[in-house]
Amino acid sequence: MISPIGNQNNEAVDWWFMYKLPMKTGPLKNSTGFEFLYCDSNSEKGLSLSTVSLDHDNSALALTLDQVFSKQEDIGYVLWNDEIPPSATVTKPKNNQSKGHSKGVLAFSKKNNCGLYLLHSTPRFPAEGTKELPEDEKRFGQTYLCIALKDYSEVNKLATVLMTQNEIQVYASHLPNIEKEEPLYLLTENLKFDIPQSPSVLNLETPKGFKFTHIAKNKHWSKPLKPQKIGKDYWKDLVGPTLQSNLNVETWRRGLVFGDIDLDNKFDTEDDVDIDLGKIGLTGYTWAYSKDHAKWGISAKDEKNLIVVSDLNRQLSQCKRGGGGLAFSHEGLWQSLKAVEITEKILETDPHLDVS
User: Fold this and answer.
1) What Cα–Cα distance (Å) separates residue 48 from each residue in 233, 316, 325?
2) What is the dihedral of CA 297, 50, 144, 11, to 10 degrees?
3) 287 membership: H or E segment, kind and range
4) Which end of the chain is more exposed for a tag (fewer CB within 10 A), N or C?
C-alpha cells in the first residue's frame, strides 16, 4: 500500500510538506543542508523545525521513497526531472531542454486502487532506488509536497496532464500490470500528442477528501509570439487568475524575472526576496532568494489561505518550458509562510532590459 502516506510519527496522513533549509544558515551559520521545516494534514499550527534530518531514515521523504522503491510486486512508479540524475550506466546523462521544467514522482498500486504524487524542486533527484540528496543541492533551499491520491483513476488523470502540459522528462519507471493504452504507459514512451489549446486545471482528491488543484501549462501556451520577446508568466497569468487571488511568490531567480511586466493584469504578483524564520520562533534563520531553489506561492491575504507548490520559477526563460503546481488551502501552513516571507514589488519597466 502507498496510500494514505505516512508521516514522521508513523501516522497516516493525506499530505505532507517539507521546506529544506539552505546550508550555513541559523544563529551560528552552521546548518548542514539537511534541516527542514515540516507540516502535514494532521498539523494545525503550520510549519515547525523537524526533529529528524532529511537524511534520516524516519524523515517523511525517506519513508515515502522507501515505500516507492520497496520492490513490492504491485507498486509501480514514474520518475522525472529536467536534470536527470547520473546512474551507474549513464554517468553524464543528456537533458532535453525542450521538455518541461518539471520534477516529481508518481507512484501507484493498481491492485490496491491508490497512488501518490511527490512534487519537488531538487535537480538530479531521486536516483532510481535511492533517497540520497545530490551533494551540491544541499546548499540551497528546496520544497517537497507529497499527496495521497484517492484512487488509481486519479493517477491516470494526472499522468495525462504530465504528458501533455508539463511534458516531463522521464528517466526511470516501473509499470507492473499496466496496459499499453493507459496514460501511465503512454507517459513513459515519449510519444507525440496533440498540443493542448489551453492550460490544464485538474481537481484532485485525497482518500479523506482533502482537495488539491493541479494547475499546469504547456510551453506553447506561454512562449513569446514573434516579434515579442516576452511570453506569459505561469504565476501571474495563469495561477493568479485561476485562483482569483493576488500572490506572493518565492522561486529560484537567476537572470531576468517576470516581475510586474503586465501592469494591466487584474491579479497582482509580488516576489519574495528574503526568508526570515524569526516570526515562527527560529531566530537567526534567515536567507536571501539567491540561496533558495524552492518554488512556492501564497495568496497575498488570508481570506483563502491558499498555498501553491510548483516546479516553475518566475524567470523569463520559463515561458518556453512546460510545468505545473499544486494549489490547496491550509490556514496553519499559510500563516507560517506568510510570517517568514519578505516581499519586494519588482517593476521591470526599464527600457534597457535585455529579454532575449
Assistant:
1) 31, 33, 23
2) -110
3) strand 286-288
4) C
Element (H, E) at 109: strand 104-109
Checking if the pLDDT of 200 tops 80, the result is yes
The mean per-residue pLDDT over the stretch 197-221 comes to 97
β-pairing, 170-174 vs 142-149, is: unpaired
Place of cell 490544464: 200
Residue for cell digits 552552521? Answer: 30
Q: pLDDT digit string (tens) for 26-67?
A: 999 999 999 999 999 999 899 999 999 999 999 999 999 999
Average pLDDT along the chain? 91
| Alpha carbon distances (Å) from 218 to 98, 200, 234 | 11, 9, 10
The mean per-residue pLDDT over the stretch 191-216 comes to 96
> Of 261, 347, 342, 335, whose CA–CA distance to 299 is shortest?
335
The single-letter code of the amino acid at 96 is N
pLDDT at 259: 55
H helix intervals, 80-196: 152-161, 183-188
What is the pLDDT at residue 258?
A: 65
Whole-number Å distance between alpha carbons of 114 and 349: 48
What is the rounded radius of gyration, in angstroms, for the C-alpha atoms of the chain?
19
